[in-house]
Amino acid sequence: MASDLDFSPPEVPEPTFLENLLRYGLFLGAIFQLICVLAIIVPIPKSYEAEAEPSEPRSAEVTRKPKTTVPSVNKRPKKETKKKR
């Protein structure tokens, strides 16, 4: 009865190149997602940038002018009275 039992490991085929590529691609994707989630959760102190910027005004903000809206010539003015039914 003991000779009837076969305790050898089952034969598993060697993974193909595509299966290996898929496995390692999924591992890399999971690691990338963990890094992205940790980047959102863990704040990075920006003390070195905050000290340098207030003393120097940005050149883009100084030269920027507010835009004024000019109505287009082709557009009709809105009708002020309500339509009668």
Helix and strand topology:
Blueprint: H1 17-41, H2 47-52, H3 59-63
Calculate Rg over CA atoms. Answer: 34 Å
Runs in which pLDDT lies below 50 for 5 or more consecutive residues are none
Element-by-element helix/strand order: HHH
Number of strands: 0
Q: How confident overall, as mean pLDDT? A: 77
Helices, by number, come to 3
Judged by helices, strands and strand pairing, the structural class is mainly alpha
What percentage of the residues does DSSP assign to strands (E)?
under 5%
Largest sheet: none
Shape: elongated
Write out key terms for the chains shown:
85 residues; mainly alpha
Task: Provide an overview of this structure.
By secondary structure, the protein is mostly helical. It has a domain at 17-44. Helices cover 42% and strands 0% of the residues. The chain is built from 3 helices and no strands. It has helices spanning 17-41, 47-52, 59-63. The longest helix is centred in the middle third of the chain and has 25 residues, at 17-41.
